[in-house]
Amino acid sequence: MSLLSSLLVLIVTARLLGGLFSRLNQPAVIGEMLAGILLGPAVLGFIEPTRALSGVSELAVFLVILAAGLEMRFDEVIAAMKGKGLRLALLAFFIPFLGGMAVALAYELDAMRTVFLGLCISITALPVAAKILDTLGLLNTPIGRAAIATAILNDIAAMLVLGVVLVLPPQPDFAAVGVSIGSALVKLLALAGLVILLNYGLAVLERKGFSVQVVPEQLVRWLGPEALFGIVLLFVLAFGSVSEILGFHFVIGAFFGALLLDKRYFLASRYNELKRTLDSVTGGFLAPVFFAYLGLKFDFDAIRDWGFVTAVLAVSIATKLLAGVWGGQLMGMARRESLALGGMLNGRGVMELVVASIAYERGFIGPHMFSTLVLMGVVTTLITPWLVARALPPAQLAAYRARHAANRADA
Question: 3-406 has which CATH code?
Fold first, then answer.
């Protein structure tokens, strides 16, 4: 099937199933992922997860991250990463990582597969978390800010470990490991320094009375109103490219680039126009493709040991729930909010698949491990909205959704 035909079938099916789940008061992303599973090699085999579809999916990830970054404020996310928020992120990374290593050791896996299993279980995917939080109306809530900050730090930690593993020599010694870790840390500090420096520079300009809104308005006068969307895309793409050049996944840099584009830097009408354009392109077309593509990656045939699969699923879900409940209560959240946070941290999706794909392509893991990790990513992402919705009282969740809808209407 050609790319355009595949996209047509994928989008129509994803939107139909997504709409069905919405009518059942469930997030549309569940139906969109099931569309991919149904159409992909796991069930009907109509559509294969080709390189072309992967490229469209990456574009979707980029725009989902851009939309999430525009919804949030830089200072709020940074505040969520400090103090108790940092404790939450550490718990959410190391508890699942150690749980994954325990499963690997119990099944006598080699050192490399042990590391990658722990790494994939420890991830909370930023694009998935952002989309599900937005769907549930939780993006600009304490749960949403804590989940986003945790996802960022977890993904950074995972990319840091992955970067170290990929540059190790065939026979690594302590000196080689030390050099790899040092190099990755320097690159991470360079990315963080660039973001902090730009944010500080914008704050200084504001304090000196310079209206940053002048810049996008002048560009619109020169290039036309339709150019604003393209200018924003180029700005965020530049951050994503810098992130990739430094060895991290592009979504980390893209999110921080979008986060710098605070609404106060635009006239209200320009910002609202930008949001409407982005919501139309993302929600109407690319986001369903992204979640359906996750479902396409699943394949039953490559899985041999279902006992191992069950152990991986149980540990991956339980350890994130434990980390969320523990970390949430350290942050002063109520018990049910902490449980909702733990459920939210289960969304792995694209980042876990990125790590698993790299490991598979490099020969670090085999097809059985790869399919197990894909299944784990799909299942944990599918149950994430359900876990969050069941953890919160219905009235509280409805209030969050109503507030989110009102904010969208005002925009």
Answer: 1.20.1530.20
Q: pLDDT per residue over 203-236, tens digit each?
A: 787 778 776 667 777 777 787 767 777 888 888 8
Q: pLDDT tens digit string along 51-88?
A: 888 888 878 878 877 777 776 677 766 776 677 778 89
Domain ranges across the chain: 3-406
Mean pLDDT of 118-143: 83
pTM of the entire structure?
0.73
Q: Could you write out the three-class secondary structure of the chain?
A: CCHHHHHHHHHHHHHHHHHHHHHCCCCHHHHHHHHHHHHCCCCCCCCCCCHHHHHHHHHHHHHHHHHHHHHCCHHHHHHHCCCHHHHHHHHHHHHHHHHHHHHHHHCCCCHHHHHHHHHHHHCCCHHHHHHHHHHHCCCCCHHHHHHHHHHHHHHHHHHHHHHHHHCCCCCCCHHHHHHHHHHHHHHHHHHHHHHHHHHHHHHHHHHCCCCCCHHHHHHHHHHCCCHHHHHHHHHHHHHHHHHHHCCCCHHHHHHHHHHHCCHHHCCHHHHHHHHHHHHHHHHHHHHHHHHHHHHHCCCCCCCCCHHHHHHHHHHHHHHHHHHHHHHHHHCCCCHHHHHHHHHHCCCCHHHHHHHHHHHHHCCCCCHHHHHHHHHHHHHHHHHHHHHHHHHCCHHHHHHHHHHHHHHHHHC
Residue 231's pLDDT is 80
